[in-house]
Amino acid sequence: MYCKPKHYLVNKKECNFVFQILLMLTYSEENYLKTIYHLSLNNKKGVSTNAIASRIETKASSVTDMIKKLDDKDLVEYQKYQGVRLTASGMMAAKMIVRKHRLWEVFLVEKLGFNWDEVHEVAEELEHIKSEQLVNKLDAFLGFPTEDPHGDPIPNSKGEIISVEKKLLSEIEIGTACVCVGVKDSSSEFLQYLDKQKIALGSDIKILNIEPFDQSYTLEIDQRELTITKKIASNLYVKS
Asked: Which residues does UniProt assign to the signal peptide (predicted)?
């Protein structure tokens, strides 16, 4: 059984310890850790087993069985009615999985010419590669990127994340000029829609009007006018 560090792991020795943990995890266990990590980002309380089951599209009973396995490895803590929390080791392991996924997305887009709507499923496979040396060399080869092609932050080798202050476009007032820095919905359908509308990371955006009847947005994007729905505005991250 692994020990439970009280603090997040940051030094080289402890990072190597985390990769030793990853060597002993199945693909399914890694997917659960990553799912719990994503669900816990904006959730100060524990993550419910039902939320995990919904995200992974499996039965709640299967989630409970997996949580017990991860608890035995001291990667999560589970209390009935209070949900699941990642331990320090579990948090770091999850960050390393996310790190690999997002680095591979950068590689696929920048070096192999994939579109940003094509990389998620391929990166889902590549994120399970166990070699710490390969991941660190990939990071260096790419120039130590801090964001993936969708604007999501990439944890560094110590699990540290550079946070960028951003808001949803739907939270911005009329007349405000901003820049697109990410997407909330990274589905291929949404990304393909953005491509059709020529909306990308780095696009200059200014809200010209919000229609009271249907809450549609009239925007100036890169010096051209475009109307989008509130749903689209609610899935675009921007910064002023």
From this structure: none
**Joined tokens for residue 73:** 């490895």
In a domain, 50, yes or no: yes
Over range 171-189, report the average pLDDT: 96
Residue 12 is predicted with a pLDDT of 53
Read off the pLDDT of residues 59-68 as tens digits, 9 standing for 90 and up. 999 999 999 9
Residues 193 and 114 in one domain: no
Question: Do 81 and 137 belong to one domain?
Answer: yes
Residue whose structure tokens are 């020795």 = 13
- Stated pTM of the model: 0.87
Q: For 210-227, what is the mean pLDDT? A: 96
Of 185, 17, 160, which is closest to residue 98 (Cα–Cα)? Answer: 160
Helix, strand, coil content of the chain in percent (nearest 5): 45, 15, 40
Q: What total number of domains does the chain contain?
A: 2
Type of residue found at 204: D
